[in-house]
Structure formats: structure tokens, C-alpha cells
Specification:
Helices cover about 75% and strands about 0% of the residues. With about 150 residues, the chain is mainly α. Helix 2 crosses helix 3. It starts with a helix and ends with a helix.
Length: about 150
């Protein structure tokens, strides 16, 4: 069992003892996703697999929160935001914009890209070298800015 999966299970037990309903619900959802993945996949969830699952759950929660806000349901949006905050505690921290910009500039130089049409090549290089460390949306924005101004 990966340390992240174990940490979620341990924190779920602590939240149950503390009677923290919001945390219990969020961690149960995460744990259920881990269990489902282990049943569908090839056994235990790896550390990298657990991070991917957490990112997927987080994205679903962000999308739901946005939908609730647009549907004028702030109570439900607030619940989703609380889940996002709890999930963020378990995700590795992403690189800041300055660091990501350095990676983007290095990838542009390595690929020889000169226009936005070659963005896919640059994104591929950055994400291959820094998967898990770089935010894909930020990488895309920085590449557009760098190649658009070139």
C-alpha cells in the first residue's frame, strides 16, 4: 500500500474519532476511489496512481463547484470547496510560475519551436520531464505567451 493511501486511511480514522463530518465525507470519497482503482487495476494503487486519482477527484470537485455557483447554489459550492481544500492537503505542491517559465523556456530552446503551432511539441517536453511538478494549464499559458511574443 502506498504511503499516500495509508495516510488517507489513517487520517480518515482520526477524522472519525474527532467527529469531523466534512473531513470524513471527503476522505471516504477519496478512499473509495482508491479501492475502486485497486479492484479495476492490477492490485495495489501506487503512489503515482494515487496522485493521479486525487487530481481527477479534485478536478471533478472544481467543475462541480463552478456549476453550483453558476446555478446559484452557494451552499453546495461551499461543500465542494471544502472537499477541494481537504484533497489539496494530499496533493504534491506544483512548481510556481517562475520555475515553470524556466522549464518552458528550456523546452522551447530544446525543441526549436518558433510559433504557437508547435506548442504540442513544447508541452510534451515540459510534461515529460516535469510530470506531477507542473500545472498543465499554466504550462500552456506560458508557452502561448512565450511563442506568441516571439
Amino acid at each position: 500500500m502506498s504511503t499516500l493511501v495509508q495516510r488517507v486511511s489513517d487520517d480518515l480514522k482520526k477524522a472519525m474519532l474527532a467527529k469531523d463530518a466534512v473531513r470524513v465525507n471527503a476522505l471516504r470519497m477519496v478512499r473509495a476511489a482508491f479501492i475502486e482503482a485497486s479492484k479495476l487495476g492490477a492490485g495495489e494503487v501506487t503512489e503515482e496512481g494515487a496522485v493521479d486519482i486525487l487530481r481527477r477527484i479534485r478536478k471533478q470537485r472544481v467543475d462541480s463547484a463552478e456549476a453550483y455557483v453558476s446555478a446559484n447554489r452557494p451552499d453546495l459550492a461551499e461543500a465542494e470547496t471544502a472537499d477541494i481544500t481537504i484533497i489539496d492537503e494530499y496533493l504534491p505542491k506544483l512548481a510556481d510560475e517562475a520555475t515553470t517559465l524556466e522549464w518552458v523556456k528550456a523546452a522551447i530552446a530544446a525543441s526549436g519551436a518558433t510559433s504557437v503551432k508547435q506548442m504540442g511539441k513544447v508541452i510534451g517536453l515540459v510534461m515529460k520531464d516535469h510530470k506531477g511538478d507542473a500545472d498543465g494549464a499554466l504550462v500552456r499559458t506560458l508557452i502561448e505567451r512565450e511563442l506568441g511574443g516571439a
